[in-house]
Write a structure and sequence with these properties.
heterodimer; A: 337 residues; mainly alpha; MetI-like fold; 14 helices; 72% helix; B: 274 residues; 2 domains; 79% helix; 0% strand
């Protein structure tokens, strides 16, 4: 499409969010489709006018351009994933690793790791929701209340931590919550024996801290696109700020909210570092079970079965999120970022 | 509202600031600041394990980011010329590369490569003319492959968005003025695309440099910097880790800041003259 604007604000976080939803097929509006059709017709007629040899050359160039990326995707994404599925139907070799077989025993054994699934499925949505509660006011302030002069800087300040090492940022909290951090300070004023590290609360704190930027960005983008005249009209018609917020601002920002919640939840489903460092083996996720099965007990087939199940869960969560997003925005066409 | 937002910014940056502060702590005690000193930086920089890990990380990040930048840009251009079905397949695969959790990418790569190596190594030994056949194994190659996958998707998306925002007008104008396709590409398209390619490269570099979980599975005997940091955290917190963490933070901060400056959309200013 000529002059089509890139989706979202162009920040890496937004691009990620956009891709996430294009995975399940982003529904495009009729006008967009018509324009595409026109474009295709035009290029078809153009190509018909050219001699065949140019046409073949054109195809060759296209193939050469996409070949390296296509090969990379095939060899390091599609084939490994298929190998993993094959492994999940195999047996554990006596010395660890994989032994060819065809059995559903690994999948039948999944309940033995139910605790990891349970923890992940409970803590990930709660963490995403807590993230949302903290993120919404910030996104609202950035998009609507902040001085436009400083807006870009303020937004950058939110995005930047997301791209710095999650390991280092989580480690910082390990330091703060550890016995020499806050509990030590509390001890000085007479409150003894406070345990903060290795609790579900610490894991939740780490989650909010680590994923806050990813939640703020999509909400910020959807609020920034909001037509300010609607807010003015609402005020002119005598609506109180509160009813303007619940009647106009919040419903119109729901697509951004959905994107943020879905993104954070999906990434949390595969989280390893935060529960490992802040949960200390007491609050463990599927990711921790996977590391244990692959790198410690070397039960590869069972690990593969869990990994395949995790991917299935991710796809289900993604589809449900898409459904809800379609519903809240009132049509099949969603501009999610 | 303002107070709340200020608090959130503090929440985002205070822990990082604390790590930086304590990396300059003169004492060994992690809970009180006893004086300014750069001795932990000296200690960290004379640690050979750490330097090796740093070199590994830089090498892997650089290689995977360069490959991703080149192949990703090519793919972004190539995808425009594909049929809508072909484009949908690529879009889906790139999206999968980003959405599938790092743990799963690591496991899948590990499982597939180990299987391939267990098949290739005896075959290689059989046909190798000399006494000692080379043993294929996990290491640089496998980490670069797994990191490159995510980076490739990242670069392709960023460059694709940029190409879409350019529109066809200038390309058509250039063609109408009898420029060859190559001249048009070099003089018109490339200068406009280059900032986003650079941004993609820097983000890919940052991702690879900071990634722990994917490398954890496919690193084999090699240690990257995050793997080294993780191992030292498990051994116990010392101010030396703070110094390393600060250096890692500063490196990725610089990268992401440059990337963001490069990615700022300059088109509105051009459009204003129309």
């Amino acid at each position: 499409m000529r002059g089509a604007k890139p989706t979202g604000c162009g920040s890496p976080v937004c691009l990620t969010a956009h891709t996430l939803f294009s995975l399940l097929g982003r529904r495009e509006c009729g006008r967009h489709r018509a324009a595409q059709k026109f474009e295709r017709c035009r290029s078809y007629r153009k190509s018909k006018m050219k001699p065949m040899i140019t046409d073949r050359k054109r195809h060759l160039v296209t193939a050469a351009l996409v070949a390296p990326a296509g090969l990379w995707l095939l060899v390091f994404l599609v084939l490994p994933f298929m190998a993993m599925v094959v492994f999940s139907f195999g047996e554990r070799a006596p010395e660890g690793g994989y032994q060819a077989a065809f059995t559903f025993a690994q999948f039948a054994n999944l309940p033995s790791r139910a605790a990891a699934f349970w923890n992940t499925m409970m803590i990930a949505p709660v963490g995403a929701f807590l993230c949302l509660i903290v993120a919404y006011p910030v996104a609202y302030y950035l998009a609507i209340k902040s001085d436009p002069k400083y807006r870009l800087v303020l937004v950058s300040l939110v995005v930047v931590p997301f791209w710095t090492s999650l390991l280092v940022r989580t480690y910082a909290w390990m330091y703060i919550l550890g016995s020499r951090g806050i509990p030590n300070l509390l001890g000085m004023i007479g409150i003894e024996d406070i345990r903060l590290l290795n609790t579900p609360g610490a894991v939740l704190l780490g989650i909010v801290y680590g994923y806050l930027p990813l939640m703020i960005m999509p909400i910020y983008v959807s609020l920034e696109k909001l037509d300010r005249r609607l807010l003015e009209a609402s005020a002119d018609l005598g609506a109180k700020p509160v009813s303007t917020f619940f009647g106009i601002t919040l419903p119109l920002s729901l697509p951004g909210v959905m994107t943020g919640v879905a993104l954070v939840t999906i990434l949390l489903l595969g989280e390893y570092l935060i529960p490992q460092l802040l949960g200390g083996g007491k609050v463990f996720f599927i990711g921790n079970a996977l590391v244990d099965l692959f790198l410690q007990s070397r039960n590869w087939p069972f690990g593969s079965a869990i990994a395949v199940t995790l991917v299935v869960v991710v796809v289900i969560v993604l589809s449900v999120a898409m459904r809800i997003a379609w519903k809240v925005s009132g049509s099949r066409q969603v501009d999610l970022v | 509202m303002r107070a709340l937002v200020t608090f959130v910014y503090l929440f985002l940056y205070a822990p990082i600031a604390l790590v930086v502060l304590f990396s300059f702590n003169a004492g060994r005690n992690a809970s009180e600041f006893t004086g300014f000193s750069t001795m932990w930086y000296g200690k960290a920089l004379s640690n050979t394990f750490l330097i090796t890990a740093l070199q590994n990380s830089l090498m892997i990040a650089l290689t995977s980011a360069v490959l991703a930048a080149v192949f990703g840009t090519m793919a972004a251009f190539g995808m425009q010329r594909l049929s809508s079905r072909g484009r949908a397949i690529f879009d889906g695969l790139f999206a999968a590369a980003i959405v599938v959790p790092g743990v799963v990418i690591g496991i899948a790569t590990l499982v597939a490569l180990v299987e391939v190596f267990s098949f290739l190594n005896p075959a290689l030994a059989a046909i190798w003319p000399a006494d000692k056949p080379p043993q294929l194994g996990l290491g640089y190659g496998s980490i670069i492959a797994a990191h490159g996958l995510f980076s490739l998707a990242l670069v392709t998306m960023i460059v694709k968005a940029r190409i879409a925002s350019l529109g066809n007008d200038i390309v058509e104008a250039s063609n109408d003025l009898y420029a060859t396709p190559f001249t048009t590409f070099r003089q018109i398209v490339l200068p406009q695309i280059l900032p986003s390619v650079m941004a993609g490269f820097l983000l890919a570099f940052t991702f690879s440099f900071d990634d722990f979980i994917v490398a954890f599975f496919v690193a084999g005997p090699k240690a990257t910097l995050p793997i080294y940091v993780f191992a030292s955290i498990r051994r116990g917190v010392t101010p030396e880790i703070n110094a390393v963490a600060t250096m890692v933070l500063i490196a990725s901060l610089l990268m992401i800041l440059i990337a963001r400056v490069l990615m700022r959309d300059k088109t509105p200013k051009v459009r204003a003259g129309e």
